[in-house]
Design a protein that fits this description.
Helix content is about 30%, strand content about 25%. It contains eight helices and nine strands. A six-stranded mixed beta sheet has the order 5-6-7-3-8-9, sandwiched between helices. Strands 2-1-4 form a three-stranded antiparallel beta sheet, with helices on one face. It is globular. The structure holds adenosine-5'-diphosphate and magnesium ion (MG). The site of magnesium ion (MG) has 4 residues, from helix 1.
Length: about 250
């Protein structure tokens, strides 16, 4: 097993460091000895076969899953403070018959006002501001259950960006999105991370986007197998073993 790590320290730049991380469900070890380092402003893709532990690792970072090891964050002026994280979970589903609109969804998440009182004018303005970040103001009155895969991801992304996080965590944002939509969404994520200087950690099974969009790729398969540039990881023996790819590239 060969691991690639970025050399050197970060000084005062914000970053996420994970050291010797392990997670168990009962007696079953899902992964152990995971080490990784996400630098501020980076797009990091987490790949691996189904059941490899990708979602579990994201939940540990989010504080939703118990773990052993160290998850540390440093940022200018606030070392090791817990960062603000935005999260879009894997495959959320909404009932197509549910009357909940995009505006209602934001209002439920962002205010204590009972939903049956409707969305106030000031909240509607705020929702439009949020949707504007993902070029989706036209979706404000659509019912959430009727959105296409790409539209739903944009709405959930807008929700995860309010308030603006330090780290944006996306679990398989490209599943259920058509080929054209995948490039639109990836271009948007690229634009967002540059504009707001945030780090993005996302899981994906779409390896075609890695060379263009990812700064680092981490391959997990019940532990971390390799971390490096897209070219390094996609050409590695660990990648071929994990995905049963025969022969060379
Ligand atoms: P991935 O996201 O890489 O597909 P997961 O992190 O969802 O993988 O799951 C890793 C392993 O942990 C799988 O074998 C899964 O069945 C198991 N697992 C996930 N959540 C739980 C849970 N709450 N209790 C027990 N086992 C779980
Ligand atoms: Mg998963």
């Amino acid at each position: 097993m060969k691991l690639f790590f970025h050399g050197g320290g970060c000084g005062d730049a914000c970053c996420l460091r994970i050291q010797d991380l392990s997670v168990k469900y009962g007696e079953t070890c899902i992964f152990e000895h995971v080490n990784l380092h996400v630098h501020c402003g980076e797009m990091v893709a987490l790949i691996g076969p189904n059941g490899a532990g990708k979602s579990t690792l994201l939940k540990a970072i989010l504080g939703q899953q118990e773990y052993d090891g160290v998850i540390a964050f440093s940022s200018p002026g606030a070392r090791d403070r817990r960062p603000r994280m935005g999260y879009v979970p894997q495959s959320p589903t909404f009932d197509p018959g549910d009357p909940l609109s995009v505006a209602d969804l934001f209002a439920c998440c962002m205010s204590k006002r009972p939903a049956f009182l409707g969305v106030s004018r000031s909240m509607r303005e705020k929702v439009l501001e949020c949707l504007d970040r993902v070029h989706a103001t036209d979706l404000i009155d659509k019912r959430v259950g009727t959105l296409s895969g790409g539209e739903l991801q944009r709405v959930l992304l807008a929700l995860a960006l309010e308030p603006l996080p330090n780290i944006l965590i996306l679990d398989e944002p490209l599943s259920g999105v058509d080929v054209e939509g995948i490039h639109t969404l990836m271009d948007m994520l690229d634009e967002i991370r540059k504009e707001y200087d945030l780090s993005i950690l996302m899981t994906t099974h779409d390896f075609s986007i890695l060379p263009k969009y990812a700064d680092q790729v981490i391959l997990m398969d019940h532990g971390m197998k390799i971390q490096g540039t897209p070219a390094e990881v996609l050409a590695s023996d660990a990648f071929r073993t994990a995905f049963h790819v025969k022969g060379g590239q």
